[in-house]
Amino acid sequence: MLHALANPARFLRLMAAIRPWAAGVAVLGLGIGLAWGLLYSPPDYQQGETVRIMYIHVPAAWMGMFIYAAMAVASATALIWRHPVAELVAKASAPAGAAFTLICLITGSLWGKPMWGAWWVWDARLTSMLILFFLYLGYIALWEAFDDPARAGRAAAILALVGAINLPIIKFSVDWWNTMHQPASVLTLEGPKIHPDILWPLLITALGAKGYYVWLLTVRVRAEILKRQARILRFAAATDRRAG
Amino acid sequence: MALTVEQLACIRGERQLFSDLNFRLAPGEALLLHGPNGSGKSSLLRLLAGFLPPAHGRVLWDGAPALEDAEAHRARLQYLGHQDAVKSQLGTGDNLLFWARLYGLDPVGTEQAVTAALDAAGLQRQRHLQGGYLSAGQKRRLALARLLLKPATLWLLDEPTNALDTSAVAWLGELLAAHRAKGGMIILASHVDVPLKDARRLDLPEGKLA
Amino acid sequence: MALTVEQLACIRGERQLFSDLNFRLAPGEALLLHGPNGSGKSSLLRLLAGFLPPAHGRVLWDGAPALEDAEAHRARLQYLGHQDAVKSQLGTGDNLLFWARLYGLDPVGTEQAVTAALDAAGLQRQRHLQGGYLSAGQKRRLALARLLLKPATLWLLDEPTNALDTSAVAWLGELLAAHRAKGGMIILASHVDVPLKDARRLDLPEGKLA
Amino acid sequence: MSAFLAIVARDLRLGFGAQGAMLTTLLFFVLAVSLFPLGVGPEPQILARIAAGVIWVAALLAAMLSLDRLFQTDQEDGTLDLLAQAPLPLGLVALAKTLAHWLTTGLPLSLIAPLLAILLQMEGDAIPVLLGALLLGTPSLSLIGAIGAALTLGAKRGAVLVPLLTLPLVIPVLIFGVGAVEAAAYGLSAGPHLLLLGAFLAGALALSPLAIAAAVRLALE
Amino acid sequence: MSAFLAIVARDLRLGFGAQGAMLTTLLFFVLAVSLFPLGVGPEPQILARIAAGVIWVAALLAAMLSLDRLFQTDQEDGTLDLLAQAPLPLGLVALAKTLAHWLTTGLPLSLIAPLLAILLQMEGDAIPVLLGALLLGTPSLSLIGAIGAALTLGAKRGAVLVPLLTLPLVIPVLIFGVGAVEAAAYGLSAGPHLLLLGAFLAGALALSPLAIAAAVRLALE
Amino acid sequence: MYWASLGDFLAMGGHAAFIWPAFAIALIALFGLGLLSRWGLTAAEREHALARREAGRDDSSTGADA
Ligand code: HEM
Ligand SMILES: Nc1ncnc2c1ncn2[C@@H]1O[C@H](COP(=O)(O)OP(=O)(O)OP(=O)(O)O)[C@@H](O)[C@H]1O
Ligand SMILES: Nc1ncnc2c1ncn2[C@@H]1O[C@H](COP(=O)(O)OP(=O)(O)OP(=O)(O)O)[C@@H](O)[C@H]1O
Ligand SMILES: [Mg+2]
Ligand SMILES: [Mg+2]
User: Fold this and answer.
1) Is C133 within 8 Å of A148 when comparing Cβ atoms?
2) Does an interface of 3+ CB pairs under 8 Å exist between F and E?
3) Residue E100's Cα: distance from chain center in Å?
């Protein structure tokens, strides 16, 4: 078998089997979690109703970070075992990660305006999220910058790994940078204040977001595989015509 | 000492260029690669040089996999591609000097080796001329002169005669003959006649289906 | 219509490459430039193309100084140098498309002209492949295909056969013959045989000291 | 005209690949600007004071980044020879290439600058002036930079002089550009600064094609 | 070792000589830094307050200037093929080239920074710390930047892509670098910050040759 | 149910201008990305089928239609 991608039938079947379940988890999780958050959970005594933004903001933040980790693992797999599907998993993850990170940034700044009176402050957490967003965009841009998918895939995998090593250092340094100056805000919903009425919808939404991510993966990876196969077939067809 | 190629296949951008390639090269032997444009001659040379991983098959040196120990493989070969690798901002002599240093010639030997190589390539007069001002054939001569700076068993040459005039082609012929007489091996791709006696010939057809 | 060169001399970096060069080229005629590496073939072509000012002597077109009216001179010639001018990030077809647009072909004609040129050069299959992935010979074919996109009387070709395989050389031969049959003129520098019948030959000796 | 547009279109695709063009420059610009709060600290008043300088420095950098290769890649692969033979004066070829450069750097970054200005807490009144100043100033950066890029091609030993020649020429653009924004922020009229920027642009537009063409022709000898 | 030095020496000649890269970097750095007094006005306290940040950000941006061509010119003329065949691991080849890059950008820029710091009214005690921090931090910039340069070999719009890929990764250098100078300015010990900068450099020194070599090998396929 | 009336619900305690856009943007982004991905898959499927027909391989042995 010369092309590992020529017959990834098992992988595709697995993805096809997972897809409806993932879709179900996504719809139910996001639907129930957000409805619960909007309809049944109490407002915060300090933040009032704006606390409801949290039910998107926090799962989005979690997903933004989680997906980068998943991408790094997939990239390592691609580099070490040279498994092309792993490369495609990483590629398919990036838009999802970027989207969740962007949602976190936007909802955060919509929350920040009423809470802090500013759309944006250069707080450590905000800043490291912004940097994560740039890492995603850089990764996507690198994929787009090559026409040869084999080249692009491995270059992007190296970038993702370098980024993964550096990400904790960036986060640490940014946290630490912000404590040097006056911290711009103090988040009030820390630890013990988390009431079960708040925690549950939060967790359910987060689960739904995970389901959404898995569903998106099954769709996007399949599309990538088909596109590659079509390319291979095209070359083969051109060669056949010539030989025959 | 021998190079053996078994069932080699090469894929570029999801297109198979050749497959099931087999040959064996003993010291003093030479192999001429022929084939239409785009048939994969350069790709084969790059594969043998270790730039490209083979899609299938093996390259053996004395029976052991050749490409795994990259360092040892690098040490036994010299590669000359389509490009001359001449730095236009450096003088002709300085271009060679850099390669001589890189190949680890000792400081005393370096100067002499460079002078000798320039003489052989007929570039003495251009020694202080910037690489960018050389004519196309002079650049190619400079690239060939590099072959004299590093002892290596296997020469991989990609259309070395391009842009060379007749006297330079004759010089190249002498180079090749001398290398083979010392037990060297040569794999050379070319569309035109090359002064290379008793060379075996390998024809690469147009690429086939994967 | 005729190109006349009178007492032409060329100096590069204080070195005189040739001097007192005289020839005349009528429609349908071809001139083959020969000479060792660095003798000034490429320099002569660049001089005739208007890149380099002559150190001495004149270039006449129909008896009038040719190089003074740069615009008119550009319009009547096509120059192919040592380099292929292939953009590696653009597709093969897009490379040609750009030149077709630049040469002012109308939008309808452009597509057709490019398809025809690609077919002629044997690059149909590579139409969507990036220029950077082409083999050396395929790049050269692409450069030659450009000749089909702009009608010009005088072709200045610098070693056009480099890297071409035998079938491409034959195609070039047809191109040259067709161009001459239409009354075109050709000046071509080469170290190897080119399929060009009844061409006159101009030998450039090694450059002398100024 | 169609030849002119062909060059612009090709350079847009080459340097930056049509769609990705704007996006990459924008990202880079946003990133460069966001480095300053990280360096200087998050206090809004300080950020507001340096905002104009930050944005102009980032613009200068973005303009310089891809500039030195404006003609170089075309020269190295032989394309410049053929462009010089095109049915189009060399000055216009140069103008087309410079326009493509501005379209992929100066224009998109000018358009996103107001957003960054908000992030940096710039005075609201100053923001339209910032946009106008950038739109007037960035073409000058591209034009003057292109002269430098062309000079590097031909210059033999003197290439070291090129930045010495061109960077000082962009200083006026930066000073008037920052000046316009500062004036608006303090409630003064930005008019004179913008006029000077415009005059500078007009001069650059008239003179630099000539200078570029001369430099390129020298490089082709 | 002699092969290593041969590469460094060659790149220094190529960098200093025709390109004038070093001068461009220095001039850009000086220009970028000196722009801020214009915007901020001459108040010494504010200038002093932003000095460390501005100098560091300008250094970061200046280091990006010539970076995209670190491997590209060598790839285009076939030299990179032969460097990869040299009797020297590719990681060391990369290290040699990166060293040359630092010698032509990071080093001169660090040496001129104290002068700029004085212009910006930086606290006298902080200036030696600034010099030390830059000398420790700029090599990391070159190393990580070289990864970006290697990754974008053969890519479209490399010039803008390289900073986009590398700037987010070098943010720790910026933060520790500024931290060291500010600590010194406030009379605190800069030691911990410098240690962190050193640790980051050690990590970059150990890991980036691997990443660069992998990326370059990819580009040669 | 926490809310007394629909009006209360929509007003979100005076913070409607922040809360509703936040939810809307998030859902639009996720939904949009999902839709784009679906379209991408459909396009890829079409292209794959076309390429396969061109290559004259209508058998389904590549197993891509799982
Ligand atoms: C653009 C602005 C913002 C960004 C980028 C942002 C980013 C983040 C991130 C990354 C997290 C996840 C932290 C973790 O779990 O480790 C998070 C959590 C959170 N954010 Fe934000 N945030 C922003 C604005 C806000 C605002 C304005 C508020 C409310 C005042 C807020 C409240 C919270 C809360 C309550 C959590 C959960 C805390 C926890 O996990 O313990 N955020 N945010
Ligand atoms: N990424 C890619 N996708 C598709 N085809 C590719 C890709 N890269 C290279 N190729 C093709 O692979 C072939 C490479 O050929 P190679 O350079 O080995 O030919 P060659 O025999 O040396 O030709 P020449 O005689 O012209 O030098 C070309 O046909 C080229 O079009
Ligand atoms: N600035 C300069 N100073 C000195 N000599 C120069 C300078 N520029 C070019 N030359 C010399 O001028 C000659 C240019 O030759 P040209 O390129 O015209 O040769 P050619 O006949 O085309 O050779 P080839 O067959 O190798 O292509 C070369 O010998 C070169 O060394
Ligand atoms: Mg070849
Ligand atoms: Mg020549």
Assistant:
1) yes
2) no
3) 11
Whether A3 and B14 have beta carbons less than 8 Å apart is answered as yes
Task: Identify the CA nearest to C30 among candidates C177, C205, C190, C193.
Answer: C177
Q: Count the residues in chain B.
A: 210
From the CA of B162, which ligand is nearest? 3
> Over 50: is that where the pLDDT of D193 sits?
yes
Q: Residue A136 has what pLDDT?
A: 95
Element (H, E) at C158: strand C154-158
Contacts of residue C135, Cβ cutoff 8 Å, sequence gap at least 6: B37, B38, B42
3-state secondary structure of C7: strand
Cross-chain CB nearest to A56 (options F23, F44, F56):
F23
Q: Is B44 in the pocket of ligand 3 (CB under 6 A)?
A: no
Tally of structural domains, chain A: 1
pLDDT of C122 > 50? The answer is yes
pLDDT score recorded for residue D160: 57
Mutant choice from A147, A232, A241 vs B, greatest count of B C-beta within 10 A: A232
C-alpha B83/C-alpha B103 separation (Å) is 19
| A23 falls within a domain | no
Q: Tell me the average confidence (pLDDT) per consecutive run of 10 residues in chain A, 244 residues long.
A: 54 85 89 78 67 84 92 92 86 94 90 78 82 93 85 92 88 72 43 65 88 93 88 66 44
Q: Inter-chain contact A173–E171, Cβ cutoff 8 Å?
A: yes
Q: Whole domain around residue A105: which residue ranges?
A: 54-177+195-243
Locate the DSSP E strands across C43-82: 56-61, 64-65, 77-80
Q: Is the distance from the beta carbon of residue B161 to the nearest atom of ligand 3 less than 6 Å?
A: no
Alpha helix ranges (H) inside D2-125: 2-11, 18-40, 44-65, 72-76, 79-84, 90-104, 106-119
Closest CA to A155 of A61, A91, A224: A91
**How far B148 CA lies from chain C's nearest CA (Å)?**
20
Chains contacting D (3+ CB pairs below 8 angstroms)? A, C, E
Q: Angle CA(B78)–CA(B79)–CA(B82) in degrees, nearest 5?
A: 155
The reply to whether residue D20 touches residue A141, judged by beta carbons under 8 angstroms, is yes
Residue D123 near residue D184 (C-beta atoms within 8 A): yes
User: Which chain E residues are Cβ-neighbours of C89 within 8 angstroms?
Assistant: 156
Instruction: Identify the residue whose C-alpha is closest to ligand 3 atom 30.
Output: B134
Q: Chain E closest CA to B122's CA: distance in Å? A: 22
Q: Is A242 in Cβ contact with B13 (below 8 Å)?
A: no
Higher pLDDT, D209 or E15: D209
Q: State yes or no: pLDDT of B94 exceeds 80.
A: yes
In a domain, A20, yes or no: no
Question: Residue C182 pLDDT more than 80?
Answer: yes
Confidence of residue C207 (pLDDT cuts 50, 70, 90): very low
Looking at residue B153, what is its pLDDT?
92
In this complex, which of A110, A220, A234 lies closest to F51 when CB atoms are compared?
A234
In a domain, A145, yes or no: yes
Nearest to D61 among E54, E61, E77 (CB): E61
The answer to whether the CB of C15 is under 6 A from ligand 3 is yes
**A4 domain residue, yes or no:** no
Structure tokens at A72: 């790094």
pLDDT in tens, C59-117: 999 888 888 888 889 889 999 999 999 988 888 998 998 888 888 877 788 888 899 99
pLDDT band at E119 (very low <50, low <70, confident <90, very high): confident
